[in-house]
Design a protein that fits this description.
Length: about 110
Amino acid sequence: MTSGTEGKRDLNTLRAAKIAKIGKREVKLNGDLKKGSLIVYDQCSEAVTSRLKTIDNWNTIKNDQTLYDLIKAIQMIYVGHADKNQDMYSVVQDNGTSTGNYVRDFKS
């Protein structure tokens, strides 16, 4: 009977260790998502950061540093709506493209 009790104790110890590991993973993941949010925000142009500051839930996005919500807000700025099926437009100017042509192509 002792071996059965020891087996249950071993399983409980193993389960507690797994739960602790899951908790540590979640803390690390949340920290990494916040770092990602800061990296994405720092890569935004002044025009985009200015527009971000005007959206309704900006304070929540900024305080919670939610990467998903930040990306959705940026998509909303570039695309103009929250259509999940539409790709985000590329707004990078090629080295060989003049500013006038770039603006013309971007607006069309």
